[in-house]
Amino acid sequence: MTDSFSLAGAIIGHLVGDFLVQSDAMARDKQKPSWKGHTACLLHSAIWASSVWVFSGFPAEHWGCVLFLLACHYVQDRHALAKSWMRVMSPGFMDIPFAPWSVIVVDNTWHLVQIWLAWKWITP
To answer: Where residue 2 falls among pLDDT bands split at 50, 70, 90?
Structure first.
């Protein structure tokens, strides 16, 4: 950890951005195959990346990390990559009694990996 960037703060920002401020409309619409889906996903991803940035204390000169996080989040959420990963790695865990929690855990694990990669980018 550096003085200016807190990995723990970034994780709190992730939770705030993905769970507290994502509206039902964003969650429902972000995978729709239309401009509405693109807009909902982009708005959610921008709010999420901003939340990670604010809570973590990303230095302003590392704005590229914030764009990296925004792009990763957009691609992952827009294309339901967690579900695709699970279809390949563990298809039985997408069904009841495991779903939807199994998908939520895999999705959030990938988001945390992205945050960790950004953290590694900034820290020596």
So the answer is: very low
CA separation for the pair 99, 116 (Å, rounded): 26
CB-based burial label for 39 (10 Å; 0-12, 13-18, 19+): middle
Alpha-carbon distances, residue 89 vs 74, 82, 86, 93, 102 (angstroms): 22, 10, 5, 9, 12
Q: CA-CA distance, 81 to 63, in Å (whole number)?
A: 25
Report the mean per-residue pLDDT for the chain. 88
Is the whole model's pTM more than 0.90, yes or no? Answer: no
Closest CA to 71 of 118, 5, 123, 36: 118
Convert the pLDDT of each residue in 44-61 to its tens digit: 999 999 999 999 987 778
